[in-house]
């Protein structure tokens, strides 16, 4: 059993599709050269050569994710993605798994709110088979009825099982409450209410509507020769027929006004898990680099103001952190931690004080310099593998960001001043408008936490779903 | 980062062996080694593909070196190693290291305590300064010990009390071992966490934190020469003292099945089965890994096909076996589906094990398992961090990092008959401990 010194909490933690450069060296970090090709059918292909380890990584972004789930059928995009490998025109799910495992390959497909990600990896010597499997799942799924039923039942159980571990469900409860069950507040994986309503026909319809070459970005990174890979991709995907896909209508949600608190009762909990914050920023927010710098000081790293106060100095918790989950539209901002029942209000009070201190005093010149070095020094391993590079260039393409996100990061980080830090703190860190979500033993902590908000909501963890907040 | 997308995966333990394994065609990475006069061995693998360095120090001390009353001390000590020494005072270590672009972490197992530093190459001298400071001059401030005790208690509540797999895993080890120290949890029993004394801590430090009891691995944008020079200057002068006394207790052979039930608030039942297997450096290690790969790894594995796909009685079924100095257990874990009987999962697992005992696996399965091991090796080799951890793990648990690169031929040598033999030898009823978590509201699984 491994015991990590720093906690990895249930929520987010990456600030943005990260940026940074390297510290302490003249030359700065750059993305390796890569190339963009748009096939005739509209498929956007990104190629990045990286040798050294004989691995090739495929990372596809389909521009429809959980946000495209029909009302009441939350989880449909994720279920559709999960079913891609569960039976194709030429392979049963068993055959697909046998072929994939035989080459030691991996395949994953899942939906985030903004998009569906479909990825695969194999050794370069097995590229023909690896690409064949990847394309087979993407282009020729048949969604056999029994496999649909099986995956739905497994996902439903997984949602229930996750509620045994509060850390795993902190995010869905908090998001649902923060966004009032709309937009990013809808469960990406579905829940006990929505999953039983999903039928095979809806899966087929989702696939027919959204899975199209013009709706996809495919990044390939690793140990290959570009000319050879282009030919292989053209052979495999050239025949994929283009079509129009429905436009996704999702509206940004304005930050919440005032305060409100949801207490999810888990009577056997020996500690309280809490999250609070408000709606934060989008990926394209012009303040994104400055926010990354400030949040490194405030809630991102081990010696952040939050972790220092709640863990290092007081021993109230194993870990406390804050993060902006930047998305296509403004995503959640959260401060989160956990502490034993008896110290629940002590820990939340302290977290609020740290937030108030940030807003009142800002950060110091020493903290600013430290955060800049930290971001630059820790960035290079983030784009070390072919898998990470494929994901990086695909998501930048999806979000409309260019290579300067990486290549200029060092300069942009260095350009952040105390004054810009002060401005982004005032603008992006909430003070009076806060949404609180707690999972814990309601009979032990309920009365004490009433002080945080006039508006109070309550649920039991055994109640199906994550929303609505109260009855 | 654990996101909600990992629900299903998180519901099971990984199949991993905790280290990577290599078959035939694996490439070798040049490693330079040096043993310092105080006994610390240093391994360096130069790789300039990114301007960063991963530095690991493995101390051969873990919960197996503890005693009733002080369980969890190794892990607590791991925390104290960040709480200040002589030059880098209380809570300064991380602050200074982060200000120089670095980050740190550590992990404790039953066998070792491992410190990890990740940093841009310019911070190399600073890293040595910090490591030399804390191995010699760790401070024992009563106030900091008090607050860190609370942090560890919170960690225990997080990973055991409020985490069903952690809770059942703890009970499984406590039942499978009646004599050997693997019986207590790495994090320690709560009453012990609350009662260690200053003397216990100081004794533990003197026992475990001697240079001769440690191995250092440095991978990344460095040369072996510059690392060795820093070692000679800053680490070599630190005197060594006696290593921890050998763990003499040998777990007696298990002569019959043991069972335990844990009643706990839960949505779904859990099943874990532990089988006694030899320590990592036993020659059967490779055949056992091949067997576990065939049975558990991937959706084409026999257990997944049977329990998840065909019978649909489990959400996932998996197996783990951590690196170990002493005979340990291989664990099978099944997340039982709602409404399914844990007993049915148990029966299906035994039937699949019987098949592996009564007939050899197929040629294709054997080849598949070797291919999976090869890919795992390369995945570990992709990052400087993965390489530092893997090289160190082989050096410490197999006695020589070169075993990492020899694993190729060791796996290639495994035959179908070897796999069948280890299935018969280790996966018998008398050798198993069966742990079931029964949800409070659902008494069906109660024997």
- Our estimate of the beta-strand percent of chain B is 15-25%
- The H/E string of chain B reads HEEEHHEEHHHHHEHEEHHEEHHHHHE
Neighbour order of strands in the largest sheet of chain A: 1-2-6-3-5-4
CATH fold label of the largest domain in chain A = Cytochrome Bc1 Complex, Chain A, domain 1
Widest sheet: strand ordering of chain B: 1-2-6-3-5-4
Domain module count of chain A: 2
- SSE string of chain A, helix = H, strand = E? EEEHHEEHHHHEHEEHHEEHHHHHHEHE
Q: What class do helices, strands and sheet pairing of chain B give?
A: alpha+beta
CATH fold-level label of the largest domain in chain B = Cytochrome Bc1 Complex, Chain A, domain 1
Strand content of chain A: 15-25%
Summarize this structure briefly:
Chain A is α+β, with helices and mostly antiparallel strands. Chain A is built from 16 helices and 12 strands. Chain B is of the alpha+beta class and 447 residues long.
Structural write-up:
Chain A contains 16 helices and 12 strands. Chain A is an alpha+beta fold. In chain A, the strands form 2 sheets. Chain A has a 6-stranded mixed beta sheet, with helices on both faces. In chain A, strands 9-10-8-11-7-12 form a 6-stranded mixed beta sheet, with helices on both faces. In chain A, helix 8 crosses helix 11 and helix 9 packs antiparallel against helix 10. Chain A is globular. The two termini of chain A are 41 Å apart. The N terminus of chain A is likely disordered. Chain B has 447 residues and is α+β, with helices and mostly antiparallel strands. Chain B has 2 domains: 205 residues, Cytochrome Bc1 Complex, Chain A, domain 1 (2-Layer Sandwich); 182 residues, Cytochrome Bc1 Complex, Chain A, domain 1 (2-Layer Sandwich), CATH 3.30.830.10. In chain B, the strands form 2 sheets. Chain B has a 6-stranded mixed beta sheet with strand order 1-2-6-3-5-4, sandwiched between helices. In chain B, strands 7-11-8-10-9 form a 5-stranded mixed beta sheet, with helices on both faces. In chain B, helix 4 runs parallel beside helix 9, helix 10 packs across helix 16 and helix 11 runs antiparallel to helix 12. Chains A and B meet through helix 2, helix 4, helix 5, helix 9 and strand 10 of A and helix 1, helix 2, helix 3, strand 4 and strand 5 of B.
